[in-house]
């Protein structure tokens, strides 16, 4: 009996370790909707991401586009277009992978289904948690894509001040035509 328990425990640990190894980055190209719930600045945005082109573009909206931000990591430039006026600023660092941060711990329960557990009603997800100096305590939820070698972000919860919840919906592994065009007024 002890041997069986050790085998089950080892299998669970291997499953958890493989979850962390599969969610180190998101697909190289994706787009969808981003909802941020914050006491400071709640927002709804359309997001396009390309690690290949090293660009992230978000367009905030409330029925109509309000602000478009293009982060171009190849040139180190951030373009922000609001009401037809453009602001440019320097952008430093590397494009985020949207993967699990180094040092994160997988949920000890392991993978689970978000939504129903019935066939074709839920989404298999992996949860991770941790703490760092930038975000404070965080909890992240990802869904594996295809063979499960990469994962798309679903929920990011950061308990920094102010707390922030990011929800990603309607994600696809393509971007719309012209997704990374220079925002209006910045040409």
UniProtKB/TrEMBL annotation:
<protein>
    <recommendedName>
        <fullName>Lipocalin/cytosolic fatty-acid binding domain-containing protein</fullName>
    </recommendedName>
</protein>
<feature type="signal peptide">
    <location>
        <begin position="1"/>
        <end position="19"/>
    </location>
</feature>
<keyword id="KW-0732">Signal</keyword>
């Amino acid at each position: 009996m002890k041997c069986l328990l050790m085998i089950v425990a080892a299998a669970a640990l291997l499953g958890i370790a493989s979850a962390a190894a599969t969610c180190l980055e998101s697909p190289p190209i994706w787009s969808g909707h981003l909802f941020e719930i914050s006491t400071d600045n709640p927002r709804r945005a359309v997001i396009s991401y390309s690690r290949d082109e090293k660009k992230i573009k978000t367009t905030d909206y409330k029925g109509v586009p309000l602000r478009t931000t293009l982060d171009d990591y190849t040139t180190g430039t951030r373009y922000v277009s609001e009401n037809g006026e453009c602001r440019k600023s320097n952008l430093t660092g590397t494009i985020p992978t949207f993967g699990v941060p180094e040092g994160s711990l997988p949920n000890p329960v392991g993978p689970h289904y978000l939504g129903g557990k019935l066939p074709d009603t839920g989404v298999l997800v992996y949860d991770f948690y941790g703490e760092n100096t930038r975000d404070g305590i965080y909890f992240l939820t990802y869904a594996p894509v295809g063979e499960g070698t990469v994962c798309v972000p679903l929920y990011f919860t950061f308990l920094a001040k102010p707390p922030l919840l990011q929800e990603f919906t309607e994600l696809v592994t393509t971007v719309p035509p012209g997704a990374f065009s220079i925002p209006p007024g910045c040409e």
